[in-house]
């Protein structure tokens, strides 16, 4: 089932269940995907859909952080629920061991020797882990393994 089909099915189910948070979140995702489709002028491929989902996820993570700073627990809870909905459409995240293995393989692929090859490694690594691991965590692992 494609992502758009899955979103439509979930939107219908959320309407039946009267789940306002899920319904609103699914509608926002659908809208973001549609806007991206219009912007690019063609149907989105899986990579482009993942980019949109990552953007939506990051927005909610940043919102949670800001709401927590402002001591708005009601908004933090609602946004965490939205984040859970967004994450349900994303691929399964990599475990620490899997990420370590991919980083080590990538370092060998690009024949990295030291810290000066950090950018080269990250450029090759990011497409492999896109949407499945945090970029900050990956860059920390690359730095550790290059040292």
TrEMBL record:
Q: Which GO terms describe its molecular function?
A: carbon-nitrogen ligase activity, with glutamine as amido-N-donor
Q: Which SUPFAM superfamilies match?
A: GatB/YqeY motif
Pfam families the record matches: YqeY
Output this protein's name.
GatB Yqey family protein
